[in-house]
């Protein structure tokens, strides 16, 4: 069967859009100082920033899974009133400028903050400008991705399996552990990967709430931004590393989870 | 030691109000059209849906009692349920699906798997325990679902359209197996179906439910012979005509008169089997007592015969052979004469 030609009024803007999205990345590859790649990558600070980024993004993802999956269950399954409001509140960080999120976190958890002052007085712990602050900032912006993804998976899963489990003597908690969670595992994994990628790239909330201290709070995106002003070559190499990680994430999502989900 | 239930549930415009009793070892079929409230009834018995009124008692234990605010949650009811499309957990092996119930009810992993393996053996799936449900055929999945429901030796077995997901050939074999397992099962069984063949083959008693209420109850043979509503008559392939008995004739509500072999009086139902109706192109000679003019409203092939739907004073279904159908030159709208012998007409009180 012969396909219709794509009309020019659609084809031209579409081609422009592709160019717009792809050219900057191509530019990054073209300008990469491939000969100095080894030395730049092993420069002090680069490994440190990369390690910090991976560790904090992974911790933020773990926190998001532990707290976000139950939240997604509540949004998808409970019949409590005010669920629509709850969902709206939970998804605000998706659209909120991350800097605003950082400011908000600072106002609550900062040394003078509502919870932060109490925490400092009772335990002597202050959160801002620590690695913990990085993890908190990343969790704040990234958890909604996981919640939305898992909620979608829960809504798509056949709730009658939960009825079947109940007739087999499983209470709701057992049903969640042994039936619901395994059924939505692909959705949880996809949400975790998205969440991790978002946390890895987090800039605004991190620099506002956690600052920019090499070794404790300077993640890759912060390092890229600083390097661009001092040493553009290093910024390009650091950006390349993040690009590679992003593409790898995308491939993982496509082949492992999205592909399987689409086939099922 | 039985199931005794009176269930009242409101679901939008439909109010289900059904009372039923099932003795140990007895199989009750709840037969009815889609949307009659059969599945709702079953979900209440399973504890998946709270009733708006009534009570459910099994072996003397109250499972639901709305007036006394008693409600045993689904997972604490010793029952087994087979769902329409089986609902085997796709992430577990067939063996672990069957072992799921014993595990949640406190058995050790080894004991649960042992019991599951024994049941898989009983339903003829001993070799397939390691498979995923997706790798089973429809009939195998149905047997696995039955094993999963029966493994805990429940007090009550609920079957929701257990054979409707199967193709015709598999259905025949699985129905026979199901019948054997139901005969061995010591508890009460409630089977929901819209197929009168399933009800006849599997049940000791039939409850016909329409629009949420019981319209007829009895043995399968009784229900098939003496349908009380058009729905049941249609299911068992009879023409059902309400009328008033006047000696050797019944005056129909629709205006026609049917001659019968035994004198009758009062409100009655007349049932006529399609195969006892003969069709003629014109009024036959010999003055048969039951000969009515009719219009052919529709015709569908039915095995080697053609089932004809006749409109007229006496609306009837008639089965004629394909040859006869062709020889009569019948087409929708054709005028024919329908003839039935008086001793082929069944009459019973309304």
Automatic annotation (TrEMBL), chain A:
Keyword Membrane: yes
GO cellular component: plasma membrane
GO molecular function, one term: molybdate ion transmembrane transporter activity
Gene3D superfamilies in UniProt: MetI-like
Keywords: Cell membrane, Membrane, Molybdenum, Transmembrane, Transmembrane helix, Transport
UniProt-annotated location(s): Cell membrane
Domain ABC transmembrane type-1: 50-253
TM region positions: 52-76, 88-109, 129-150, 179-199, 234-253
NCBIfam families recorded: Mo_ABC_porter, modB_ABC
Role this protein plays: Part of the binding-protein-dependent transport system for molybdenum; probably responsible for the translocation of the substrate across the membrane.
Protein family per UniProt: Belongs to the binding-protein-dependent transport system permease family. CysTW subfamily.
Name of the featured protein: Molybdenum transport system permease
UniProtKB/TrEMBL annotation, chain B:
GO molecular function: ATP binding; ATP hydrolysis activity
Family matches, as SUPFAM superfamilies: MOP-like (SSF50331), P-loop containing nucleoside triphosphate hydrolases (SSF52540)
Keyword ATP-binding: yes
One BP term from GO: molybdate ion transport
Presence of keyword Nucleotide-binding: yes
Domain ABC transporter: from-to ranges: 3-236
Domain of life the protein comes from: Bacteria
Keyword tags: ATP-binding, Molybdenum, Nucleotide-binding, Transport
One Pfam family linked to the record: TOBE
Gene3D superfamilies: 2.40.50.100, P-loop containing nucleotide triphosphate hydrolases
Residue ranges occupied by any Mop domain in the UniProt entry: 285-349
Protein name: Molybdate transport system ATP-binding protein
Organismal lineage: Bacteria, Bacillati, Actinomycetota, Actinomycetes, Geodermatophilales
């Amino acid at each position: 069967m012969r396909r219709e030609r794509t009309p020019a009024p659609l084809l031209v803007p579409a081609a422009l859009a592709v160019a717009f999205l792809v050219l900057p990345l191509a530019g990054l590859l073209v300008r990469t100082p491939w000969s100095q790649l080894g030395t730049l990558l092993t420069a002090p600070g680069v490994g440190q920033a990369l390690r910090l980024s991976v560790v904090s993004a992974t911790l933020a993802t773990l926190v998001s899974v532990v707290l976000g999956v139950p939240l997604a269950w509540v949004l998808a399954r409970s019949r409590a009133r005010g669920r629509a409001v709850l969902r709206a509140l939970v998804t605000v960080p998706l659209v909120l400028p991350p800097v605003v999120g950082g400011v908000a976190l600072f106002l609550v958890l900062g040394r003078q903050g509502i919870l932060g002052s109490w925490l400092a007085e009772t335990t002597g712990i202050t959160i801002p400008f620590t690695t913990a602050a990085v993890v908190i900032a990343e969790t704040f912006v990234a958890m909604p991705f996981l919640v939305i993804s898992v909620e979608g998976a829960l809504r798509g899963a056949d709730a009658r399996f939960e009825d079947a489990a109940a007739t087999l003597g499983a209470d709701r908690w057992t049903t969640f552990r042994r039936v619901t969670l395994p059924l939505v595992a692909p959705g949880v994994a996809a949400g975790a990967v998205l969440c991790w990628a978002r946390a890895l790239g987090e800039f605004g909330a991190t620099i506002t709430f956690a600052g920019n201290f090499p070794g404790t709070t300077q993640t890759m995106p912060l390092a890229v931004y600083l390097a661009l002003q001092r040493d553009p070559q290093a910024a390009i190499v650091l950006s390349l590393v993040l690009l590679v990680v992003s593409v790898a994430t995308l491939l993982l999502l496509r082949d492992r989870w999205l592909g399987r989900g689409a086939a099922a | 030691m039985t199931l005794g239930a009176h269930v009242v549930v409101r679901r939008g415009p439909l109010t289900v109000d059904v009372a039923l009793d099932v003795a140990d070892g007895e199989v009750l079929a709840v037969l009815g059209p889609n949307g009659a409230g059969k599945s709702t009834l079953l979900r209440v018995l399973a504890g998946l849906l709270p009733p708006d009124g009534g009570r459910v008692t099994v072996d003397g234990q109250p499972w639901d009692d709305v007036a006394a605010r008693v409600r045993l949650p689904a997972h604490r009811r010793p029952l087994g349920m087979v769902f329409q499309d089986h609902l085997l957990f796709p992430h577990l092996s067939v063996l672990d699906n069957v072992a799921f119930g014993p595990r949640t009810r406190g058995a050790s992993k080894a004991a649960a798997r042992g019991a599951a393996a024994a049941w898989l053996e009983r339903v003829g799936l001993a070799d397939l325990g390691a498979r995923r449900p997706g790798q089973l055929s429809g009939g195998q999945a149905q047997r696995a679902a039955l094993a999963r429901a029966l493994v805990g030796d429940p007090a009550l077995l609920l079957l929701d359209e257990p054979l409707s997901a199967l193709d015709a050939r598999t259905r025949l074999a699985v129905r026979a197996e199901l019948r054997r397992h139901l005969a061995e099962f010591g508890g009460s069984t409630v089977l929901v179906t819209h197929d009168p063949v399933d009800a006849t083959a599997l049940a000791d008693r039939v409850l016909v439910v329409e629009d949420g209420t019981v319209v007829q109850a009895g043995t399968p043979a009784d229900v098939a012979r003496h349908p009380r509503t058009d729905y049941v008559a249609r299911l068992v392939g009879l023409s059902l005509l309400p009328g008033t008995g006047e000696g050797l004739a019944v005056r129909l509500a629709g205006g026609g008169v049917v001659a019968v072999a035994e004198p009758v009086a009062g409100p009655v139902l007349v049932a006529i089997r399609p195969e006892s109706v003969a069709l003629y192109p014109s009024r036959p000679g010999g003055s048969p007592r039951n000969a009515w003019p009719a219009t052919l409203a529709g015709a569908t092939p039915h095995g080697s015969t053609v089932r004809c739907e006749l409109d007229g004073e006496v609306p009837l279904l008639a089965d004629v052979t394909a040859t006869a159908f062709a020889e009569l030159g019948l087409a929708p709208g054709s005028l024919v004469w329908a003839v039935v012998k008086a001793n082929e007409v069944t009459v019973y009180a309304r």
